[in-house]
Amino acid sequence: MTVFLPVVVGLIFTASFLSGQCVLQAISAESGDTLPDSFIGFESVPDKVADGSVVRVRYQCSRPCQLAVEILVSTLRKTDLVVFRRKWTSSTPRVYKTQQVLLRLPQSISNHHRYASRNMSDTQNATVRARLDYLEEGSEISPQHGSMLRIYEVQQVLPLSVWPSPPPTGCLSWSAQLLGQMADNRILQCPHESDVIDVLKFPLACTGENFGVVHRFQPFINGALERARLHAVTRPSVAFSVWIYLLKGCQKNHCGIVHHVNQKRLFDSVLIQLTDTGDLIIQARMTTGEDEAFRAIVMLPLWKWIRLDCYILDSKVQLNAAWDNETRSFEYKFQNIIHYDDTDGHFVIGGGKYMSGISGYFGPFKYHRLGTKEIKNPLHPKSTLQELDRTHLECREMRAFTNAFLQVVSEDHQLSSNNKTVCTNDFPGLWAQFQDKDKTCAEAWNLETQLKYSVLFQFLLRKEDRIRTGHLGMNNLGGTLFHLAVSTLFQEHEAPMEMSATSLELLKASSCFGNHRASLLLAAIFLSGLGHPVDQEQGHVYSLIGAVGDDRFALMHAGYKHTHGADGFPQDLDMANCYYANIGGQCSIDSYRSHENKRRLGMMLFWGQNGVSKDTMSAVKWIERSAMQMKDPSAMYDYSLLLMKGQGVKRNYTQGFQLMKKAAAMGSINALNGLGWYHGSVLKDHKKAVKYFEQAALNGSDDGMYNLGVYHLSGKHPNKPQRNESAAFELFLNASRLGHTAASVEVAGYLSTGSLEGVSQDVQRAVIMLTKVCEQNGHLGFTIREALQAYLQGSWQESLVKYVLAAETGLGLAQINAAHLCEELNLSYDCQRRYHSFSLLNSDPHPPTLLKMGDYYYSSSSSSTREDSLSLAEQAVSMYSRAALAGSPQGMFNLAVLVREGYVLPQSTLHLFNASRHDEPDSVMEKILGRCAQLEDENAVAPCSLALFGLQMGKALSSMTQNRAQLLLAYASILSIIVFAVVVPFQACLEHKWKAATQRGRASLGAQPVEENPRLSVNVLQQLQLSSDLAVTLSGVCLCACWTMLFYHLL
């Protein structure tokens, strides 16, 4: 045992020495022997590097040192190419200094935009690097330390085209000089420009209201074409051709087909109108300033595609109207020459602000600005437009025989073989199930019609009793068919679920009877493959039918498709604006009719909202009780309105006026607007009305701003009696920023036409404003609420239908829910991807959708070719990056996973995490996971904290294994763990023996002596216990040293 103790003590000293040595080496390696009073940094660096830029460097050396500033660029052939280096020395230690460095770039870069160079290609970014090196004796850089400090700044390179081009100081090669001369002598040509314009490339649905496609024509860029156009202003030579399809005759005296409105808000050349008798009127403005017109007696037919060609030459106008392969020509010569300037104002196809349009469709519209002898304008897309015509024909047939059926049933005509007005081809097999009923039919249909529309015919037979009692007629037949179709839409026994053929026929019949939610649902089914094969042509047909039916959702659907160019609809903001403007006008009327304080209990009772039955008397009592307390100005205002309008109470202007005045005095802004309305509409005192509106507007009321704008627009402002559209526009614009619906519609109208001086045309902005207005209409809210209620009640199919109807309008929330239900109902994967993709088109997509699409692209990349795989991976990175930018921890975690797998993130994504492409992958992952760990909460799905800890542990262990002493310490720690595993049980055994020996020693005091020496045994046990304690202590020291080093590297 005397030998064992020195060995153990030696091991303890050796372990302590190794631990201290490891710590010192680690600290030395991390610090790089850099003294704390030596540093270098950039004081200013230009945003973009160019020849002549200036960099300011601040530094301080602890001893004589050499400093340098370098520029490194990357080209297509080389990376980190040093193109500039500036060195200087500093011999004064521990003195803070600043050095200004002028950056000079080589001729191969600075003159690259003028001459071709084989040595340099266009660079995208550059790295400005500064470094500090210590000097030994003799001004030599210390070989022991190398570059002690380095800093980097990654900058954008100034585009070569905007660099100054100083004359080259040296001679260029012959080839470079030749290429430069060829570039100097090149004749610049204008881009191709044509006088032939396809104004409409896709069918346009017109509802017969004041909404149409607005188009402005700009002057030609080409000088020759522009001179020809200016010459044609007083000697016009133009031609245009348009296809139309009339569903109804003109309901007014005149309906617009094409009209031109100039900057003075006057009709200009040319104006084509449809009369109530089906004739055409063509009006033009003469060079004398007068308007002349002529009437073409043509009697255009309904339900046929008609082509109208118009040729204008000087004072002559030729009009050709063609349908059914026959052409009717009309020619007229005005007394004076026509004045025609298509850049003055704007053209409108269909209805506009000053004229309602036709009810029907527009086909292709081709315009020759400089005229032509013959216009080539075929019907396109021909198959779609022919299918549209065929569908309308079927609907007319369906309505005709249904109307006859209803008439016969209502008159109680029973089937009789002796009655000649009744069909005899009744196919008894079909009617066998109705033997107990009176069976009826009329000669309006025959066997062929019955077979063609058998689903509808069976439905009518089943509902014969309801028809006879008057509970089912032409007015509510469409809605009844729609609800029946939705209830049996999918065949549940199929996997995946498929659309029922019977439901599809019922939806088509419902569409024909005027329920255009059915038209929109059919369009969604055919465009998305929702339980049915994709048929884009049929989808376009029913989209147009729904839009021409003036259905809010169908109009929003058409506007949404044209805004984004989805599902085969061309991207056309002018057409999108036409549809959205229609919805905007309807939403403006809705918001005017609705009361602004429906949230109160009295209003809920009054309007019957949120499951509360409508009870006008109870509502009025609640409002009256609250108002008469004279404490709530909102309730006082509500009750004063009811008194003035006589809703639920007897009309009393005097009491209502007094109550409203008190509410205004108590600070109710709505009451100020109400007083303005009362004085302006009832008392006709516009001076006081404007006064109250101005007070409301000054208090931030959007209604007050809008009402003041209306006064300026109408010219009834008492202080400024003249019409002032500029002042009205400014007020409308301010009100629209506060969310006023009607004001937003007015502003969008000015932006779409650009007719107001100082307001340029901005159709995109107009569409964005109208989209926000349309998404606030109450019909969407009701549909979403009904869809949610159906989902909670377990009617998932009905919920899916309602969410799909709302999703087709572009509402992001509905699109997400529709995609989820497509997955739950086991529909095709294309259905899920479709609505997730559509939701990405919104300005603020939901992060879960971005993650879903990112997962889709990532999973698709693994099964694609190399080229497609790279493209899909880039899209996955884009989706995850957008989700991360929206604050999604899961998106950040997915980006970290992609970095670990070797994907290189784009610079825009790296900037989100203060990383760059020069960073190592582990460093990029650490920054991403660090940001992710800061955002995730207790219920987070992404285990960013665990991943970050694992990454840092791996880096720490890797750093430890790179040093021999630390590696030896790591091995010693492993050995220590083994020692613990062996010694601890051994100690327990020794402790047990020690207790037994002690007990024997105590027992031996009163007993006879034995041959064995108990003291010797106890001494041995004590020595073994001491040795095991020392071994455990040594192992603990090793483990402590190892963990100390590990935590040092972690921190």
TrEMBL record:
The gene is LOC107396047. Pfam families: Sel1. SMART domains: SEL1. It comes from Nothobranchius furzeri (Turquoise killifish). Keywords: Membrane, Signal, Transmembrane, Transmembrane helix. The chain crosses the membrane at residues 968-990, 1030-1050. SUPFAM superfamilies: HCP-like. Gene3D superfamilies: Tetratricopeptide repeat domain. InterPro entries: Sel-1L3, Sel1-like, TPR-like_helical_dom_sf. Residues 1-20 form the signal peptide. This is Protein sel-1 homolog 3-like.
